[in-house]
Structures are given as C-alpha cells and as structure tokens.
Amino acid sequence: MEMYQKGDEEHIKVLYKIKENMKSQSPEKMKEWFENKRKEFDIQPSK
C-alpha cells in the first residue's frame, strides 16, 4: 500500500489486476492466490 500511496505505477497496475480478479474468482481461489503471493513475498531477500 505504501507504494500505491507514493503513486508507483507498477504497483497501481497490480492492485487494479487484483481488484478485477477478486470480482471474478471464488473466495476460495482468492484465498489460495493471496497465500501463494504471501509465500513468494516472504522468500524474497531483504534489502
């Protein structure tokens, strides 16, 4: 959300995609998707 607030264009595009996916996916599919993204984020090296 910090990057969205800063107006980072790539983050804004991704958030829009997420919003659109939420409209068309079942709650179970969205929960699975978020969990997978959380795992991907957690394995990224810290800066």
Q: Can you walk me through this structure?
A:
By secondary structure, this protein is an all-alpha fold. It has one domain. It is 77% helix and 0% strand. It has helices spanning 2-5, 9-24, 27-42. The longest helix has 16 residues, at 9-24. It is flat and about 30 Å long. The model has no long low-confidence stretch (mean pLDDT 82).
Secondary-structure topology with pairs:
Layout lengths: L1 H4 L3 H16 L2 H16 L5
Low-pLDDT parts are none
How big a fraction of the residues is strand?
under 5%
Q: Report helical residue fraction.
A: over 70%
Number of helices: 3
Average residue pLDDT: 82
General form: flat
What value does the Rg take, in angstroms? 12 Å
Query: Which class of secondary structure composition applies to the elements?
Result: mainly alpha
The total domain count is 1
> How many beta-strand runs?
0
Which series of helices and strands comes N to C?
HHH
Describe the biggest sheet? none
* Termini Cα gap: 18 Å
Summarize the structure.
The protein has 47 residues and is an all-alpha fold.
Task: Looking at this protein, list some descriptive labels.
single chain, 47 residues, mainly alpha, 0% strand
